[in-house]
Amino acid sequence: MIKLDQLPEVGQSNGYSFDGIKAISDNTHLSFTAIFTYLVRKGKMSGAIYGRMRKEQEDTIQ
Questions:
Q1: What is the secondary structure of 3-27 as a DSSP string?
Q2: Which of 13, 18, 49, 62 has its CA 20 to 30 A from that of 31?
Q3: How many CB atoms lie within 10 A of CB 40?
Q4: Does residue 44 register a pLDDT over 90?
Q5: Largest alpha-carbon pair distance within the chain?
Q6: How confident is the model over 16-21, as a mean pLDDT?
Q7: Residue 5 lies in a domain
Q8: How far apart are CA 13 and CA 51, in angstroms?
């Protein structure tokens, strides 16, 4: 299993690391939001991508 600190920089070229983020979320019970926040703080995700992914996640829930 991929570890949180091993995730690559998130971007369009790698499908926004969705599969890795989902696997970590499923195996650790960390929310997508917690993982997104971690990645922004580590400089592996831009604020723009963070905002877009959060909005998509919220839209999916509703």
A1: -GGGPPPP-GGGGGGHHHHHHHHHH
A2: 13
A3: 16
A4: yes
A5: 31
A6: 90
A7: no
A8: 18
How far apart CA 54 and CA 3 sit, in angstroms, is 21
Q: Is the pTM of this model over 0.85?
A: no
1: pLDDT confidence band, cut at 50, 70 and 90? confident
Tokens of 3: 């570890």
Residue 47: count of CB within 10 angstroms of its CB? 8
* Residue 48 in domain: yes
- Expressed as residue numbers, the domain containing 27 is 15-61
24 contacts 35 by C-beta, under 8 angstroms: yes
- Give CA–CA dist 44/5, Å, rounded: 10
